[in-house]
C-alpha cells in the first residue's frame, strides 16, 4: 500500500473497532492507540516469518483484523470466534497466549537466541507499553536484552497511561524523555546498554513506517520509544482514557458516557464502598492496587479522597504482596485488590513474605471462577487451589453483595493472619441471604444426596435441588463460605446422613476442593457410598459466555 492507502486503512480499522466495541464491549482506548503502529508493523515486517510479540495483548484488535480475523469484528454473528487477547490457536500470527503482561521482551530475547542458534534469518519485534513496563519481568527482559549482541527491536508504546495513571520512577524518566524529544540524559534504556530512538508522532502511520524501516535490520538490540495517545481518534476516550480502557456495550455517540464496567452494583463497587468507610474510620487501613484500581472500586475521586491510604504500585503484583506484608508487620491493615489470574504471579510472595509470618494482609481477589469472553488466560480457576494450600491462609467465598460486606468486615477486623476473599465478575444470582458469618451453612435439608458448592455455584446447586425434588430425589444443600481452612469435623456436617455427595465448583480439577474433601472423608472413614466431583477438570476453558462455558463443562 502507498501512504494514502495506509492512512485510509487506519481510518477503516478505527471505525470497525468502535462499531465492534459498541456492540460487544471491549478494550476501546488501548486499541485505538495502537492502530497506526499495528498497520506500520505489518507494512514493514513480514509476519509471521518475522516475529511480532504484543505485550498486554488487549491492544491487538487491529492486528487480528489484519491477519485473517476481520469477520469476527465486523460480523456480529461471528464475534465469538476470537478472544480479546492474542491466541496461537486462532492464528499463526499470534505466537503466544498473552493475557498477562510484561512478558514480550523476555519472549523476544528467547526467539532471537533460538534464531541465532539455528542460523536462521528473521526479525524479532517486541511491543510493550500501556503500563507493562512497571512489571518485574519487563525489567528482567530489558536487562537481559542489554547484553544481547544480536538484532532485536523493542517498541515502547508510551501512551502515558496504565489502566489508570502510571506509577513508578521509570515513568518519571519516560515523561522526561517525552518532554525532551528523547534527548534527556536520564535514559534508563541507554543505561542498560540498549540503542534508543524516539518518535513523537506515534499515531502517524507514515512517520511510524519511516521509523520502523530505519531500525528494521538493526544488528543489535534497539528501543524505539513511540509516543501514542490512548483512545486516539475518539474524543470521549481521549478525554477520559481510564473510563474507556475497557467498557461494556455503549451507544456509538460521541456524547455518550463510557459504561466502564457495567451498570448497577458490582462486587468491585461494594468493596470500594466498604474500604472507603474503613479508611475514614481507621488511619491504619490501606487500599493497595497493582495498576487495576477499578476492580476494588477506587475511581479517581476515591483515590484522591483516600490520600496516602491508597497505594497504586503499577503492574507489579509481586511488589504489591511483599509491600503489603511489610505494611502489616509495621501495624497497618493492608487490603490488596487483585485479579485471580494476576495474583498467581505473586505465589512465592504469598508463601514466604506473608503466610510464613502469619501477617494480616487481606486479598480482595476479583474475577473468581470463569469470566467469559476474555478467554483462556483470564479465567480465575486456579486460585482456589493455590490459596487453600498455603498454611495460615483463610479463604472466604461470598455468593452475593451482602456476604461480601460481611466477609470484608470479618477479614479486616476479626480474622488474624492472611485472608483472601474471592468474588466473581459482575452481579448476583438468585441466592440473596447473608450467611457470611458462618464458615459452613446447610441451606436445605434432604435425605438422599448432599449437593455442596461455594461462591456463585451455590445458585446452580440450589436450582439442581429443585429439579431433583421434582424427580423424587431429596437433595440436601450445603454452602461452604470458607474453603480454607477445612477441618475434619466440617466433613461430617457436610455429608450428614445422605448416601451420596456431589461437589460442584468453577475450579480446575487437580487439587480442587472436592479432591481435598475426598481425602478427608477417606482418612476419617466417613466416605459416602457415592462421591461425584463436578469441576473444570484439567483444561483451559476458552472464551464464551458464562452460560456456554458452564454447559460445556457440565456445571449448569
Query: Hey, roughly how much beta strand do the residues contain?
Result: 15-25%
Largest sheet: 7 strands, mixed
Average pLDDT metric: 92
Poorly predicted tracts of residues: 258-262
Could you tell me the radius of gyration in angstroms? 25 Å
Largest sheet: spatial strand order: 7-6-8-9-11-10-15
- Helicity, as a percent range: 25-40%
Q: How far apart lie the N and C ends?
A: 50 Å
- β-strand number: 17
Give me the secondary-structure category.
Answer: alpha/beta
Shape: globular
Number of helices: 22
* Oligomer category: single chain
What are the SSEs and their pairings?
Layout: H1 3-24, H2 28-33, H3 35-44, E1 51-54, H4 61-69, H5 71-74, H6 104-117, E2 124-129, H7 136-145, E3 152-158, H8 169-179, H9 188-191, E4 195-199, H10 205-215, E5 221-227, H11 235-239, H12 267-281, E6 285-289, H13 300-306, E7 310-312, H14 317-329, E8 333-339, H15 340-343, H16 347-355, E9 362-366, H17 383-388, E10 394-396, H18 401-413, E11 419-422, E12 440-444, E13 449-453, H19 457-470, E14 475-480, E15 482-484, H20 488-495, E16 500-504, H21 513-523, E17 530-534, H22 546-552
Parallel strand pairs: 1-2, 2-3, 3-5, 4-5, 6-7, 6-8, 8-9, 9-11, 10-11, 13-14, 13-16, 16-17
Antiparallel strand pairs: 10-15, 12-14
Helix pairs in contact: 1-3, 3-4, 3-10, 6-7, 12-18, 14-16
Amino acid at each position: 500500500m502507498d501512504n494514502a492507502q495506509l492512512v485510509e486503512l487506519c481510518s477503516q480499522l478505527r471505525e470497525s473497532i468502535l462499531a465492534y466495541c459498541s456492540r460487544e464491549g471491549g478494550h476501546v482506548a488501548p486499541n485505538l492507540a495502537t492502530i497506526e503502529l499495528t498497520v506500520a508493523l505489518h507494512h514493514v515486517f513480514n509476519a509471521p516469518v518475522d516475529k511480532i510479540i504484543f505485550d498486554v495483548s488487549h491492544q491487538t484488535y487491529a492486528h487480528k483484523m489484519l491477519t485473517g480475523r476481520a469477520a469476527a469484528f465486523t460480523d456480529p454473528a461471528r464475534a465469538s470466534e476470537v478472544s480479546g487477547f492474542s491466541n496461537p490457536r486462532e492464528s499463526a500470527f499470534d505466537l503466544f497466549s498473552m493475557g498477562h503482561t510484561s512478558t514480550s521482551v523476555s519472549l523476544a530475547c528467547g526467539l532471537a537466541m533460538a534464531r541465532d542458534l539455528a542460523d536462521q534469518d528473521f526479525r524479532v519485534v517486541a511491543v510493550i507499553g500501556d503500563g507493562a513496563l512497571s512489571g518485574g519481568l519487563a525489567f528482567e527482559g530489558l536487562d537481559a536484552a542489554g547484553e544481547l549482541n544480536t538484532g532485536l527491536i523493542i517498541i515502547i508504546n508510551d501512551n502515558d497511561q496504565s489502566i489508570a495513571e502510571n506509577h513508578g520512577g521509570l515513568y518519571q524518566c519516560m515523561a522526561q524523555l517525552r518532554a525532551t524529544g528523547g534527548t534527556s540524559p536520564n535514559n534508563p534504556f541507554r543505561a542498560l546498554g540498549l540503542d534508543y530512538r524516539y518518535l513523537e508522532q506515534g499515531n502517524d502511520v507514515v512517520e511510524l513506517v519511516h521509523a520502523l524501516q530505519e531500525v528494521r535490520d538493526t544488528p543489535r538490540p534497539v528501543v524505539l520509544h513511540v509516543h501514542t495517545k490512548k483512545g486516539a481518534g475518539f474524543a470521549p476516550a481521549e478525554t477520559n482514557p481510564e473510563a474507556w480502557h475497557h467498557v461494556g456495550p455503549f451507544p456509538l455517540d460521541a456524547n455518550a458516557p463510557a459504561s466502564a464496567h457495567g451498570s448497577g452494583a458490582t462486587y468491585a463497587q461494594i468493596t470500594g464502598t466498604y474500604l472507603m468507610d474503613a479508611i475514614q474510620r481507621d488511619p491504619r487501613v490501606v487500599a493497595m492496587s497493582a495498576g487495576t484500581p477499578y476492580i476494588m472500586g477506587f475511581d479517581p475521586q476515591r483515590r484522591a479522597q483516600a490520600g496516602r491510604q491508597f497505594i497504586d504500585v503499577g503492574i507489579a503484583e509481586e511488589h504489591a504482596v511483599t509491600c503489603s506484608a511489610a505494611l502489616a508487620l509495621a501495624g497497618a491493615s493492608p487490603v490488596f485488590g487483585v485479579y485471580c489470574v494476576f495474583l498467581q504471579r505473586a505465589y512465592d510472595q504469598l508463601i514466604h513474605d506473608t503466610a510464613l509470618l502469619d501477617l494480616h494482609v487481606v486479598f480482595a481477589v476479583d474475577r473468581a471462577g470463569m469470566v467469559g469472553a476474555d478467554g483462556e488466560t483470564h479465567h480465575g480457576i486456579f486460585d482456589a487451589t493455590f490459596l487453600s494450600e498455603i498454611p495460615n491462609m483463610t479463604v472466604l467465598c461470598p455468593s452475593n453483595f451482602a456476604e461480601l460486606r460481611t466477609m470484608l468486615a470479618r477479614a479486616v477486623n476479626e480474622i488474624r493472619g492472611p485472608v483472601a476473599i474471592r468474588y466473581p465478575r459482575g452481579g448476583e444470582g438468585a441466592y440473596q441471604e447473608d450467611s457470611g458469618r458462618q464458615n459452613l451453612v446447610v441451606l436445605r435439608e434432604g435425605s438422599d444426596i448432599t449437593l455442596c458448592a461455594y461462591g456463585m455455584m451455590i445458585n446452580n446447586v440450589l436450582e439442581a435441588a429443585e429439579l431433583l425434588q421434582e424427580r423424587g430425589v431429596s437433595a440436601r444443600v450445603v454452602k461452604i463460605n470458607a474453603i480454607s481452612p477445612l477441618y475434619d469435623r466440617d466433613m461430617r456436617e457436610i455429608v450428614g446422613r445422605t448416601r451420596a455427595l456431589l461437589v460442584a465448583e468453577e475450579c480446575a480439577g487437580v487439587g480442587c476442593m472436592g479432591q481435598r474433601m475426598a481425602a478427608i472423608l477417606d482418612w476419617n472413614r466417613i466416605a459416602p457410598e457415592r462421591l461425584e466431583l463436578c469441576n473444570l477438570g484439567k483444561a483451559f476453558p476458552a472464551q464464551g459466555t458464562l452460560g456456554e462455558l458452564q454447559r460445556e463443562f457440565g456445571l449448569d
